[in-house]
Design goal:
The chain is an alpha+beta fold and 132 residues long. The chain has helices at residues 14-26, 41-44, 120-128; strands spanning 2-7, 30-34, 49-54, 57-69, 75-79, 84-90, 97-101. It is globular, with a radius of gyration of 15 Å.
Length: 132
């Protein structure tokens, strides 16, 4: 299985990102647009997820339902309604999207476990010391 990663641009906190995605899902679905169809889209559609990067960490994932057409010849990445919080994992910020192999993807946090998420700076430091 293959996933994509994307920076949660404009989202100051995980709560804000989750709220914004829930609002968009409730108002007719979530579609992100990009210029080019990923070459490996067949490996992702209906199986992979979009992992969100915030403050140099993978923090959440939203299932990718498929790909479609958007205005102006662009490509729409169609996302599912549910966003899951994952165990924070270090990931450098980048522009656009990048592939993430399933072996490198962090596991989902258990329901309600989000209360125990470490502050991003502390989680980065612990991960760099191989303690997280």
């Amino acid at each position: 299985m293959l996933h994509l990663t994307k920076v949660a641009f404009g989202a100051p906190s995980l709560d804000y990102l989750l709220e914004r995605l829930a609002e968009r899902a409730a108002s007719g679905g979530i579609a992100l647009t990009t210029r080019n169809l990923p070459k490996r889209h067949a490996e992702i559609a209906g199986k992979g997820s979009l992992f969100w990067i915030m403050k140099h960490q993978l923090v959440a994932r939203t299932p990718i339902l498929g790909f479609g057409e958007a205005e102006g010849g662009r490509v729409a990445i169609l996302l599912g309604a549910e966003t899951r919080i994952v165990h924070p994992a270090p990931k450098r910020a980048h522009q656009g999207w990048r592939y993430l192999e399933a072996a490198d993807a962090p596991a989902d946090l258990a329901q309600g476990a989000a209360q125990g998420i470490l502050p991003p700076a502390l989680a980065r430091e612990l991960a760099s010391l191989a303690l997280l």
